[in-house]
């Protein structure tokens, strides 16, 4: 069946500015996990092996493509020698640090992970 287009329908023009989307939990989590892994000087394969997940799956978690279960998050946290509670606090602290801002429409990927503070700084808050 062919798609029909009504003549009175026009594409909506995006607003020139709009509030930036709040970062997604999975993006902030992934960024935090990647920072922790890199701070340890590990490659993806090493951390994935210890966590019991495939390197591809860990990569997808780090990039915010997959939303892992709490069991998977705990396994990766353990492989990085941290606790689920400390990791959760670090991610939450990172999300709280994101300032409200306005960006031109279409210039920022919704849910892109914040650049600061580092997860290590958030862990220091928990201590």
Automatic annotation (TrEMBL):
Annotated region (Disordered), positions in chain: 1-23
Alphabetically ordered keywords of this record: DNA-binding
Leader sequence segment: none
Entry annotated with the keyword DNA-binding: yes
Domain HTH cro/C1-type: 33-87
Protein name in UniProt: Helix-turn-helix domain-containing protein
InterPro entries referenced in this protein's UniProt entry, alphabetically: Cro/C1-type_HTH, Lambda_DNA-bd_dom_sf, TransReg_Diox_bact_type
Composition bias, Basic and acidic residues: 1-16
Organism domain of life: Bacteria
Presence of keyword DNA-binding: yes
PROSITE patterns given in the database record: HTH_CROC1 (PS50943)
